[in-house]
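Note to self: keep these together.
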Amino acid sequence: MTTSPAEPLKGAGTSGQGLKLLAVTACPTGIAHTYMAAEKLTEAARSLGHEIKVETQGSIGAENLLSDNDVRDADAIIIAADKDVDRSRFVGKRVLAVGVAEGIRHPEQLMERVRSAPVYGRAEGDGAGTGPETRSAPRGHGGGGKERSVAYKALMNGVSYMIPFVVVGGLLIAISLALGGNPQADGGLVIPDGSFWKHVNDIGVIGFTLMVPILSGYIAYAIGDRPALVPGMIGGWIANTGSLYDSKAGAGFIGAIVTGFLAGYLVLWIKKVEVPKFARPIMPIIVIPIVATTVLGLFFIYVIGKPISWVFTHLTDWLGGMTGSSAILLGALLGLMIAFDMGGPVNKTAFLFGAGLIASGNQTVMGMCAAAIPVMPLGQGLATLVRRRLYSEQERETGMAALFMGLFGISEGAIPFAAARPAQVIPANMLGGAVAGALAGTIGVTDAVPHGGPIVAVLGAVGGVPAFFLAVVAGSVVTALMTVMLVDVAERRKGGERPGAGGGAVAAAAGGSVVGAGAEAVVAGVGVGGGADGGGGAGVVARTAAASGSVPAAAGGPGPDAGDADGDGADAEGNAEGNVGAVANDGGGLGEAPASEVLSGYLTGQTVKTELVAEEKEAAIREMAELVAATGKVADADELVRVALAREAQGTTGLGEEIAIPHAKTDAVTAPVVGFARSADGIDWGSLDGTRARLVFLIAVPEAAAGDEHLRILALLSRKLMDADFRARLQGAAGESGILRVLGEIR
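Structure:
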């Protein structure tokens, strides 16, 4: 069913054919409220006769990812989130964006409001952001296109995390050279060892050194989640360290992109391997990172690294044979090489070739290189000024930094643009570099120092300064104009693939999700661990026909990272499907589990209390800490209480519906443990819906015991507790054994 974007959706609902809706739920803490909103929207859709699929973006990653086909067939999209969500994939669709609390409190109203919601991407007032967290994602051609989307978002995730390192490292190097460098007789610039500015320069170099592993690591993270971060970063470091595979230059950012994708998909493959239940907790924090890092590192050194070394050696020999050829041809070739990979083996080959000839008295080759070196950052920075609408705010800010770096001959300033749009930026860079190199070679520009950019001309190292600046300006303008043209063409093509699709801004943020450890800086919409088919995941799916009200199971089964919050392939009770509640459950239990197996054995009769004595939140948390301490798994009950209260200070764990799930990740406990207690009168927990908490769970896990084990438990609890019948039976269960029987339904 499709509707005209110009008119409100009509004739759909309980009295007719239901709407086909999509939803995305997310909250800053990324845990219970995310799933609670998803369940509420699912229940509302069922009652109103609509069809809905909900993508959850929690701390355990994006689950039940919306595919291009889902978006294409949808009538409207509801975003219930308190953090940024990528809306660019919803161009041409009605989008209603509200806070996550609205998804919990008023799901039925949202489904009515979305009928007349503005069409995203059609008007300025559509509420669609085009800021740093928003990106124009590729659209499919009617097919699934999901793999392309995941790869694109993973690349953008890596770029977004790399940008601060490029900017900070590049600007610190440039500032230290400008303020602390001493001009030399040959026109060079040297910062005295041990000086203040030398230390500033060293800090900048560290930033530059880290940018390649960061790019690789966060590409891997966006694909394989946390277990892929270490192999991705170490793989990127190896790619950038040519000495490990007998090359004078590393593979640079192109090598980092390769290792990032290899690490991410390698981890996804390892996650599919079935392992004994006792080994599952250590898979994401020990086994997977070690195996993936070792395999990827050796593969790069012995398989990928050797060809890079061969290319470096033979390119150098080839260039040596061209020194007597046409200066225009040699300059154009060197410009192409300098601009190709900006710090990679091809770039380094050209640079070291020119630098090596300075000692022999041939300074013209270095002059060609010096003119080409600043063209990429200057050209890309200029492009962000020439056609601002093609770039996000953060990209425009990065463009200003690139301009500054270009003045000091720091070509890496253009890497974020090349990594984000390689098909458009790299050819434009190469054309501009070739123009600059050819002009410098034709006019006979010389450079007496192994560096490039306007700074060396200002300091007197360049011979033929006017011609040098002419070459630099010409190359930069060509790069800027070619970039703008190619990006504009690409955006128009994207826009033509779907009615109403327009050009979008390209973000460099992220994490946005991504996704920092500790702080939840996540590039919205960057899926982690989703299956290739898009049908899996531990998210919420309801396919409810208006007539029958039935809810078929989600097709496709779980994705590689579905149903397992910590990415170790384990579900709540060893479920072979790995799907922890992909389908909204109408019925009561899923079968009873033995008491020792409730929540993987973390909740037992010893940690259940039928009636809390406490009447307020802090006292209740302390009472429950003492309850779980009786198991012998709590080394410091006071510290457990302190950490749990600190978590409450970040945001209430009262979910509403008379439920509270305080939780703590602390070494005050020696092993994961879950406690449960009821309160007859209820406790004021600051819940979103104002209800007093009568069902209280306390989750406590060690800092490094089982990866994201507490998130997995939270996800299981918050989903099951949205079942009103389950809550009623839990509230009315007689004694500890009765409570355990009801809780045994959580799987």
